[in-house]
## 1
Amino acid sequence: MRILGINALFHDPAAALVIDGRTVAAAEEERFSRRKHGKRPLPFSAWELPEQAAAWCLKRAGLRPQDLDAVAYSFDPALARPADAMGLDDPWDHLRLTYAREAPNFLRTALPGLDPETVRFVPHHMAHAASGAYAAPDADSCSVLVLDGRGERASHLAARRVGGRLEPLRAQDLPHSLGLVYEELTEHLGFLRSSDEFKVMALASHGTPRMLPELRRHVYPTGDGGFHAAGVPWAELCAPRGPDEPWTQDHADVAASAQAVLEETLLDLVRWLHGRTHDTVLTLAGGVALNCVANSRIAREGPFSRVWVQPAAGDAGTALGGALLVSAGAGDAPEPMTGADLGRDWSDAELGAWLKTAAVPCEKPEDIAVTVARTLADNGIVAWFQGRSEYGPRALGHRSLLAHPGHAGNLERLNDVKGREQFRPVAPMVLADRAAEIFDGPLPSPYMLFVHDVAPAWRDRVPAVVHVDGTARIQTVDPERQPLLARMLREFERLTGLPVVVNTSLNTAGRPMVDDPRDALECFGSSPVDLLAIGPYAVRRGALFRTGDGGEEVAR
Ligand SMILES: [Fe+2]
């Protein structure tokens, strides 16, 4: 079966293509449209479809829209209720339902030739659940917890996968929503709602949870697999922060308190689920599952032996989950995900042609991994553009910005390059076989969705990646899966004694991650990066900004 998955309704529009149970392509619309998150998460933008991502998925597989057996749309308007009946203050929510009902016809327009009868509405949280349970490796039988802002009428789903079946066990109805509570706080703290929740998580580590008792009056588990989470009087806890104002200790303390109440509620939900299923594996999905601090606590203190989080855990992942659910429902065996590199790539010849067209001077060294390791060892910053782009919000060694972890000043330097807040950490990538020596936490951790304690003996050796609380959000690199990246890390270790490199996403503030070669050149040209490693080619900053006829440097 050839199934196209579409996420469109709330935020992070994305498309994914699953053929006979195998994921062949998945991409977020923002990487094509160059608008962060694809669109603002507002009711009147609900009609916007991931047109470019969907068209690319089909092109990648050589399919036409009429060749599809089904399109999975990750929202079922038949399950929804009016916003006021669900206790939500969202007067334009009815637009979402109107647009969702019309999605089959909109999709026919976006993908000429598509039969609108092939479009299936998939319950939003079943799509999230499938994106975890069917994509997880070695998880034919597993529990799954969806932790979201909202779906049709609920905000959470506890479910169980047994083979090709996904059985819902418990859902928490709106207005109670851990995701919406966290979003409210994001807005109260002057950040962008439905976008910057990870900044609240980062700020939390600068505070103490002194407002936890007050928060527990509004956010608490109900003991039956559900929870109460609504009506938090944020303004009584701390003054709101304007977007350009400095944060205060009160802001950090309320963030720490919200993080703590989230974690203890999640632990209760996880224990309830384990009590029902007694599974060993838990998979997580939904926007809240991008909270790597909470994930780590679930892994450390929860009853499951293994916790796996799908890298596109937010709404983008429902494109993949919807397609996997329809595929499994049709009898195909879902194949587990082997990596997040499901997006676009270019051949060496195509990359060479891009550089030639842009008249960019470049080298083709014997091994780009060695060239990069040397530049990093000399404390240069490297833009790393290799292979297929990532599905999900994290750079995982395909569209990354790399630096030396041994210089504490590189945190500030990278935050300056990217134009982002100084309280935010940067993260390390580490060779998988060296991770346990340096980082204490769930291993392997290929998708940067857990935090690890940095061993005291290593904190002074890799200061740029150690957060204020002594942790790091690591990516482990498996040499079999990512040989080029592993070779670069080994060479860097040979030169410096450190099997760790700083890895952050290749973008500048407010822009989506770099996806195509033009994005890479534009990002490189506009930020103080020393080397662009694009496929086998090395573009050096010095060479780029010299004139051709005398070698005079014109910009540095
Ligand atoms: Fe969602």
## 2
Amino acid sequence: MNLPRIRAVLAAFTIALLSLSIAPAQQPVEDKVDLGALTQIKNEAFQHSQVMDNLFYISEVYGPRVTNSRNHRAAAEWAMQQMKTWGLQNVHLEKWGPFGDGWQIKKYYGALETPAYAALIGFPLAWTPGTNGSVTADAVLAPLHSEADFAKYKGKLKGKIVLIFDPRELSLHTEAEAHRLTDEEIEARTKTPDPSHTGFGPPRAGAAATPRPGEYTPSTLSTAAPTGRILRNQVNAFLKEEGVAVALTPGYNGDGGTIFASYGGSQDPKDPVGPPMAAITPEQYNRICRLLQHGITPKLTFDIETEYQKDDLMGFNVVGEIPGTTKADEVVMVGGHFDSWQGGTGATDNGTGSAVAMEAVRILATLHKPMARTVRVALWGGEEEGLYGSLAYVQQHFAPRDTMKKTPEYDKLDVYFNDDSGSGKFRAVSALGNAELAAIFQSWIAPIKDLGIESVVGLTAGPTLQPGGTDSTSFSWIGLDGIGFMQDPLEYGSRTHHSNMDLYDRVQTGDVMQGAMIEAWFAYNAATRAEMLPRIDTTAPTTK
Ligand SMILES: [Zn+2]
């Protein structure tokens, strides 16, 4: 052993001693946990796991699952069948809405024909139509930054394949695509460096800024960002009127064959439908732009078929439950959104969160351990377009946000645990600024720290009390405990989130097994403890 290594070992030993001596002081309130139950949950989760099998069906058989698409419905039927097989009760679809049209891809072919053939890596943007057979046409570069650009291209785009975005500048990747949080990073996130920023208050400045066309992100589709929606509708109406054959974008992120893109149109049947649209890999997009800049007009071919589902415009959530034994009207919920974007198969967003929630209830149902409270699983629809499924659910069941007239169910909802941050291990749990909740969660994670969940975060910052990001915020929006886990990012931001590489192979088996085990353990503890969990504090000032 060399000297630095000895120093490191000594340092680690000293830290271990220090943490031993301060450990009791960090847990002022002990929540008694059932270690026998924990052993059984761990055995079921690690020896008989079905989480990857769930994921296989959700992503590889039924994916992708754009809200209200035929695939999404078929996936929901499968999930309900599974839940019934495991003995869940009251398994059903809960409708909300109307959401609007479902949509999915039936066919995509794209190629550069001249000056030399190349197959184009890409996929159609959601809620855009097909080409009605194969179209071969000249490429035209016509970046549309705002309505002011329309005049430049008026009358020049008929029958053309139009690149509506600037070429993208690409840089060398010098860092690993995947990342696991280090102990230092987790430690840093458990601290609140500046308590003057508590999380309460208006949304981040610039959050709803006008997007560039082609940079279609989920936030621009929601009513929270009307400017994005107006611009998208203007662009679609203009391109349609000009008789454009196909519109292309390079995606809003990604390279090296990975394309991040979501929608080009909207589920709202009243919004204008644009021309067929696809995102292609930015290297190939840039090649077409460079050819044009050199005075060479490439010919491109596209053959795109898409399917609008207009039979039933109502959205839906999948719900099932394990009834409680003595306090069945008190409810512990677990879940995640079931819908996805279309480029990949929605494996990490949010096949894993759905597979984990299903596996958590399967574990609990299989163990047949009595739980006083009902454990309910919900697989939301319409999350990607603006949390529609969970927002509708909490308002139907607990309290409409405008009146805040609480239903009897409001006081009986104990907690909702959400999983929607990719496929990474659970590394910490959020306590939404509630000190009592933090102490309880500390007791729950104390016996499972070896599995990589190390701490409670969000000790000072309260919830934003505004919906955004993911479905747990729909609960905290009306003052309920909507709890999320901090997960290892893995390749979520760099490779899979809303991309064509959101695929089964990018999911790490051990990570989702750990997530399912922890979600089952948290749900079990909540469903069996004497009292319901303390509620988040909603007395802080909010803007809405
Ligand atoms: Zn998601």
